[in-house]
Amino acid sequence: MKANLNYLFALGIFLCGCKKILSPADENNRGLNDIYNDAAFAEGLLLNGYVRLPLGSYSFNDVATDDAVSNNPNNNFRLMATGNWSSINNPMDQYTGAFAAIQYLNIILAEADKVNWATSGQFTKEMFNDRVKGEAHGLRALFMYLLLQAHGGWSADNRLLGVPIITEPLDSKSNFKLPRNTFEECVQQIYTDLGMAESYLPLDYENIASAASIPAKYAGKTTLADYNRVFGAYNAQRMTARIARGIRAKVSLLAASAAFNQATTVTWAKAAGDAAAVLDLIGGIAGMANNGVYWYASRNAGEINGLAAGINPKEVLWRGNVGDGNNLERDNYPPTLYGNGRVNPTQNLVDAFPMANGYPIADANSGYDANNPYNNRDPRLALYIVVNGSKMGPGGASVYTGIGTSNDGLNAISTSTRTGFYMRKLLREDVNLNPAGTNTQRHYVPYIRYTEMFLAYAEAANEAWGPDGKGTHNYSARDVIAAIRKRAGITQPDNFLSSITGKEEMRTLIHNERRLELCFEGFRFWDLRRWKENITEPAKGVRIDNNTYTISAVENRQYADYMYYGPLPYNDVLKEDLIQNRGW
């Protein structure tokens, strides 16, 4: 932790809590005492938690999996997947950033009760204090989840370890050589923080219309105007009880998974229940958004462009800010559309899309034609991936990826595809990059989508009760997957889904549906590892020459078995005497 705190001290030495360090005043350094009568200054500690969230952009760590490669030879995930992943060079690292954020959050939790959050209004000081503490607990839980996902693992003596649990602010006199807590202890700390967040926060920030709607906790103590002043809609997209439930569902799914469940008490039934607690807020399957497969796209421009400040579309539980830009398109459009074609989907991923009738392409009932491989496929293939002959961009130009066709062809120039495919998902195709008429369009990054929650429920429910079991809930894994596939455009009735009877077959389908629905959003890397599935599958591509399709490996994946779990940073292991994960 010492390396992290030294970095933190350099950013704001007033956070140390040491009077001598806080001097001299003639340098105009503000000290910790200044937060007590300056609510905005105090809130800055909390906001440091938000600004350090690594959620505001897409990482495209799919490039480190069998779903994608990059045409950029210096891409960190490409280097990582091809043999350059170590405890010194770790693009997946969360250690330093997360612990820096946790230090800020610990300070505000320790000091919040002393802050004069408001000087007017009935009970507003107490309500502001509740809100700030609830947000801090929720954010701390989220950072701990990110730490567990990236750094939890088995020690050489066969213990499943997490990271040091730190719930008090550290200063220059603190003991930095704290041991790693067990993975289970970290999970339980997350649950404790999330419970605290829910006890302090509203389900959503909204302006209530009547004093009768003031929660019992504050009823009779405050006014309608003052309640809305603290918990009103202007706070939308800050931590809420709804978001805390979403984080709990993610944590439980991780802990119940094959990579971790030997040493945790989290059951698949709990994971299903935690996901259902989110989904039931929107009416379960009836609340599934019809546009959940194209929430990002130009065909959904009306919804995206019309998003009011803080308002979520039906598909989204939590999101970042809406902003105008064209960087995603500039990075990923094919060369003939003035893009750099960076993320190249693999043949592996293309093959994972079933036929329109729902059968996998290897199934005898699918009707797959290897000489016409993109015909009659699951509609999501055309939505998410540019194949040979696809139309793309504001003018609907044809993109040809075959040999000798154009700069969009396989390996034609440095910005061409290496696999025979380009990424379409996440891009606004009403963006024009032509220098003669370049424009921008509105984008946003979802932090949690409801589709993720539906898939989490389906996975956990199937593992707990099989394809058709419901536990204490109103829907089964099969019900959820049926709704997702119907929404995607799979021909009804879905005979392939109906043919599945066992847990193992349903598991394979659920894992594949998760792969398709969440592709390019940063899930595949973590999913393969928590499932303990094959992480060394070579990334494949297709060479199209005179209508002949030749599939071959494009890039090998050089991972060892111990790499199902990520390393702790080398320097922190040395300085803090931490136990490293096995193999690193």
Automatic annotation (TrEMBL):
The keyword Transcription regulation does not apply. Keywords: Cell outer membrane, Membrane, Signal. Transmembrane segments: none annotated. It holds the Pfam family SusD-like_3. It is found in: Cell outer membrane. Residues 60-219 form the SusD-like N-terminal domain. GO terms for cellular component: cell outer membrane. Residues 329-584 form the RagB/SusD domain. Belongs to the SusD family. This is Glycan metabolism protein RagB. It comes from Niastella populi.
